[in-house]
Amino acid sequence: MKKWILFGLLFVVVALSAVLTACNKATVTHIEIADMPLKTNYYEGESLDVAGCTIHVFYSDNSVRTEAVSADMTSALNTTGVGPKSVTVSYEEGGKTYTTTMTLRVVSRPASALYLVTPPQKSAYVVGETVSIEGVEVEIYYTDTQRYVVSARDLNYTPVVAEMGMTSVVVGVANLTLEVPITVSAVAATGIRAESLEPNVYRNQVLAPSAFAVYYVYNNGTETRADEFDLRETGTVVTAGAYTLHFEATHPAYGTFACTLQVSAVEDEVRAVRLVEAPLSYAVGDAFRWQEVRLSVDFAHAYDVPYTMGRDDYAPLTLDVADGETLEAGARYVSVSVDGETLARYRIGVGVLAPVRWRIETGADEVVRCAVGEVPAPVALNLYAVMTDGSEVYVWHNWKAVAGVDVEMPAPAQVGQTKATLVYEGLEYTFAIQVE
User: Fold this and answer.
1) Residue 234 forms part of a structural domain
2) Is the separation of the CB atoms in 371 and 383 below 8 Å?
3) DSSP conformation class of 164
4) Which of residues 136, 160, 185 is at a domain's end?
5) What angle do CA 240, 245, 248 make, to 5 degrees?
6) Burial letters 366-395, b for 16+ CB under 10 A, else e
7) Per-residue pLDDT for 20 more than 50?
8) What does the alpha-carbon distance between residue 363 and residue 356 come to, in Å, rounded to a whole number?
9) Considering 334, 350, 366, which residue would you say is the last residue of a domain?
10) pLDDT reading at 75 higher than 90
11) Range of the domain at 153
């Protein structure tokens, strides 16, 4: 009996000891990251790698235990967008879960290659030109799912001058570079162009090379003027309408080139008119005949152009006597006008003997000198008046009128260079004078 009592007491002691031991066991207070994972930087799309990561488990009795972190102890890593990313680490013990966090970082993935998508707007150059990459588009390759296209303004490029033998220029992004193909050729003439030295070509103008300029055009955009060239239409008298002119020039180094120039004729300015031929004697009652009046006209761009009055294609030249007008007896001047301005006059006689033109024997270019109020006297002038019947009257001999001939010679009223007029029976002779 005593033996059984002894065994019972021993059992109670052991049980109480187990209870007391259980009540004094240490519990987890918290956890901390001990070692960060070997990989702390990630690119977009990569998965978390916890290799090398450990935690410290702290207990209530101040003891610390190290625990390796496994993948199932962490939250997912969000790799969308660059920057710091927080990952939660969880640890379970005694039916409780303890957590801590660690900070990883998502960084930009470096480009691995550049590819030319769009070539530059200009890829052919001449020696000396500055190479431009305007228009270039380049693909930056990161991964099969990460590709970005950038334009010329986003590329690193230092402008260079084209040289013979150059086949490309280098562009770059970060530490990557790409060669953009170009071609370089020597400077050479590739053609010619022609231009008129005047704003227009003009009616009655005789076409000649001197009215035009021809330029050699080079492949670098420059030009030089040709010293010599041919104009196929040289000698053509311009009338109305449009013309296609043909030019040809031979460069001593690059051969012969041709070009055309489109021009249109415009009316020219009349500068002077001279009588060439016209009836000077009419019978009373005759009709004035425009078609028998022939003139020589100086234009701004053409000289001594024959002109017949009444020509339909040039209206501005008019006479102050109507074509077909019945003439009355007497002598009169016929005026040739352009747009209302009289440029020439000639004299006719109708049924009378009258002087109609002059014949100058000497002194035509003399400049007569005289004082104010003094009648000028051309000292070298020998002047004859031609009459309607063809006869002549000697009007002025050296410095005075011929005896028996009445002339009018008004005296000048002011100092300077001007003109004086000698008049014989209505026929006028004008000459230059210097009044002192």
Assistant:
1) yes
2) no
3) T
4) 185
5) 165
6) eebebeeeeebbbeebbbbbbbbeeeebbb
7) no
8) 20
9) 350
10) yes
11) 113-185
